Amino acid sequence: MATRRLIVNPIRLVSFVFALLAALMIDTQIGYAQNTYKQAADNKLHIAATQPILSEKEKRILLSLSLHVLGDPPPSPSNRFADDKTAAELGKALFFDERLSRNGKISCASCHQPDKFFTDGLPKALGIGLTGRNTPTVIGSAWLQWFYWDGRRDSLWSQALIPFEAGVEMGSTRTAILKTVGQTPKLKSLYQKIWGEFPDKLVNSLPDNAGPLGLPLEKRAWKAIPESTQVDVNHVYANLGKAIAAYERTLLPPETKFDKFVKRYIVDGDESAANILSTAEIAGAKLFADMQKTQCLQCHNGPMLTNNDFHNIGTGTFGELNADYGRVWGIQAVLMDEFNCLGQYSDAKKEQCYQLRFLNKDVHHMLNGAFKTPSLRYLLKTAPYFHDGRAQTVPAVIRHYISPPNSGKQSNHELTGIDLKPREIAYLTAFLYSLDH
Ligand code: HEC
Ligand code: HEC
């Protein structure tokens, strides 16, 4: 057996040689394969570094959502003092003045709190009483076209005239406001720097508490004032609103992580800036930019992420209690408002009031339960969400879009329903939060 083992079987030899050759070949093949794999991996890394994480179309869409394209606040032709520094100074003083309320405890800033990004963190605002709606921020309000969730005012200054006299907000009256301003040297002197002599004689002649929106007695006192005097009072009152608007126009939307990403990665083409946003935030941005999949862009577009229009997304309430029909009332109210752009207290020429003039007055049924599309910036700071603060979190809002109401009066909305996996909800949320800070 030992000898036989030493004898080299020719067949075995041949097979051995073949095996050796094959092994060599395989080895070289492996080597080759390894090389190609390595090259491919290198290429892949190279591609990862140079292949854009976003398509050209996605880049264009994201650019359109960034502060990079926002520009200066649009002019406010109905307010000649919109960009006047002294007016802004007076407006700021008025904004923080609690004496301008019935109980001396509420100012604009009680609900629009600077340390809460000019909101209050509550589902529904609390002034002298409980209001029916959620407090929006006033940061970036210079870019709004309509004010309030139902758009019942068409300018910042006409909006500012409401809370003073609203019973559940500050509960004061027109004449009381004018008297307080006239009796406060700082406010009076700022007023005079802008509008000249303060009308002391007029103001002193007025009853202490009279206004068209006050308690029955205060309303009666207002009605008793001659109409031409009412107009004089309204001119002074409107000026106070114009000063507040001038202040609010200085509250500019701050740049966020998303804006930095767009500026450096998309505008400057700086590849190293790709990691300003996390993988999840980029995935969310792609989802947001995908009109077919999420539809968000249909209403939330432009650098403030709102089309400044009114939409019915099934959030109206039609019951007896807490009914809120939204825009359908807002349209009537803004047309009737004596302080609107076309009214006698406006500084605009009629043709400058294009929003009001071209307002679609057709009370289309969709307006019943429609609300103003809010901005999607700074969401972490402005919770809870929707006009009545019913949604505590952003994922809860997104779930509303996934399964909008499908029965009852609320089902009469514009949404078609979207399909998102839990992971995609998380991505979309991460993207929206990148627009916060
Ligand atoms: C009691 C809390 C409260 C007070 C006080 C208050 N606001 Fe508001 N503010 C709200 C709420 C709630 C809304 C939304 C109401 C609605 O849509 O009907 C709002 C809406 C606004 C808006 C419109 C924002 C938008 O996105 O449409 C502006 C601007 C504003 N307030 C400024 C002011 C000014 C100026 C004052 C003081 C003169 C003031 N607010 C006083 C709670 C308050
Ligand atoms: C048809 C128009 C429309 C579409 C589409 C739409 N929204 Fe909205 N969005 C609105 C309106 C209107 C509101 C306010 C509704 C209310 O307050 O009752 C709103 C409110 C919100 C809010 C609450 C913000 C706040 O400050 O209260 C968030 C968040 C939001 N939308 C995110 C999205 C996302 C994400 C998408 C896409 C999945 C989307 N929206 C699609 C119109 C739309």
Brief account:
The chain is mostly helical and 437 residues long. It has helices at residues 2-6, 10-50, 56-64, 85-95, 108-111, 156-165, 174-182, 185-195, 200-204, 216-223, 227-248, 257-267, 279-289, 291-294, 327-336, 354-357, 379-382, 394-402, 422-433; strands at 310-311, 371-372.
List the helices and strands in order: HHHHHHHHHHHHHHEHHEHHH
Residue windows where pLDDT falls under 50 for at least 5 positions: 1-7, 16-49
Shape: globular
Which CATH-level-2 architecture of the largest domain? Orthogonal Bundle
Number of helices: 19
CATH topology of the largest domain: Cytochrome Bc1 Complex, Chain D, domain 2
Compile the SSE list and pairings.
Elements: H1 2-6, H2 10-50, H3 56-64, H4 85-95, H5 108-111, H6 156-165, H7 174-182, H8 185-195, H9 200-204, H10 216-223, H11 227-248, H12 257-267, H13 279-289, H14 291-294, E1 310-311, H15 327-336, H16 354-357, E2 371-372, H17 379-382, H18 394-402, H19 422-433
Antiparallel strand pairs: 1-2
The structure holds heme C (2 copies).
